[in-house]
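Troubleshooting: if your tokenizer reports a length mismatch, compare your output against this known-good record of 174 residues.
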Amino acid sequence: MNRYAALACLGLGLMVSPLLGGIGRSAVPEGTKIAVVDLRSLMETTPAGKRTMEAFDKSQKAKQATLSKGEDELKKTQDDLIKRKPLLKPETFEAERQALEKKFVELQETKLKLERELAEDYTQLSKDLFEKQIKPKIALIAKAEGITVVLDKGEMVYADSAIDLTQRINAEMK
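Known-good structure output:
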């Protein structure tokens, strides 16, 4: 009986083994080429990246100027109120002080709004730069070189400099 069981297992094994032939293979196809790029560097050092950052800085300075003007006006109003305090009736002083506090709160809300707008501006400018200029250059070079996967160097623990495309893409950017 043991001999028949062994023969049955052997026969079953021979029938099933061709079906299991691919189990030990890697999920990565042979000939896969991987490269890396430093996206942060491309965003900051390429001419297009520098123009994007200049546009962002210009927007930031304009918003900061608006905020500074409001802060200066608030400070002048506060100083004026402090100087006039001895001349004002207590209820008049209190009313003006409350109005000043209200302006302060409004200024803080404006500051938060401007910070949100700046964050949105930066995100949009970065996204446009990546989608319209960097990503197409990466795809073009990757296809020309037969590269299957391109990863962000900033997310890598280690990558050999021989597979780094950052300088080549930087040279292609205008």
